[in-house]
Design a protein that fits this description.
alpha/beta; Alpha-Beta Plaits; six-stranded mixed sheet; 37% helix
Length: 133
C-alpha cells in the first residue's frame, strides 16, 4: 500500500466515522517468528520516536524488533532475551506479539539467537532468519 492510499483511507475514515480511524488486527493460527531484525547504530531520533528510556546511553547500540505468533509468546521471548544477554527491554506487547529490545549489537544478536533457537527447538516454531541493517 502506498502513502496516497493510506491518506485516502484516513480521509475517508474521518468523513464517515466522526474522525475515528478503526484498525482491526487479525492473527492467523500458527507458531512462528515472523520478524527478527537488528537495527545497528540507529539514529538517536529513532530512539526518541519509539519512546525508549532517555536515561540510557544508546550510542553504539542496536534496536532489535521481533514479532511472534501466538502473540503471548512475546512474554517468553522477552524473558529469554533478558536471561541470554545484557539487553534492555524497550517494549513488550502480548496482544500484537511485538518485542523491542536495545543494547549492544552483540547483546541484541545473542538475545535473538537464544530466542529463535528456543522457539524452534523447544516450542516447534517456524523461525525466520535474523536480519540486520
Amino acid at each position: 500500500m502506498n502513502t496516497n492510499n493510506i491518506e485516502q483511507i484516513i480521509a475517508a475514515a474521518n468523513k464517515s466515522d466522526g474522525g475515528k480511524l478503526r484498525i482491526i488486527q487479525e492473527l492467523v493460527p500458527g507458531k512462528q517468528i515472523t520478524l527478527a531484525h537488528i537495527i545497528a547504530n540507529p539514529d538517536t531520533e529513532l530512539h526518541k520516536k519509539l519512546g525508549l528510556d532517555p536515561r540510557i546511553d544508546y550510542s553504539h547500540s542496536a534496536i532489535g524488533v521481533l514479532t511472534v505468533s501466538p502473540a503471548e509468546t512475546a512474554i517468553i521471548a522477552a524473558d529469554i532475551s533478558m536471561k541470554a544477554s545484557g539487553i534492555e527491554l524497550g517494549f513488550v506487547d502480548r496482544f500484537s506479539g511485538t518485542l523491542v529490545i536495545t543494547g549492544s549489537i552483540s547483546d541484541v544478536e545473542a538475545a535473538f539467537r537464544a530466542v529463535t533457537e528456543y522457539a524452534q527447538e523447544k516450542l516447534g516454531f517456524n523461525v525466520c532468519p535474523i536480519t540486520r541493517t
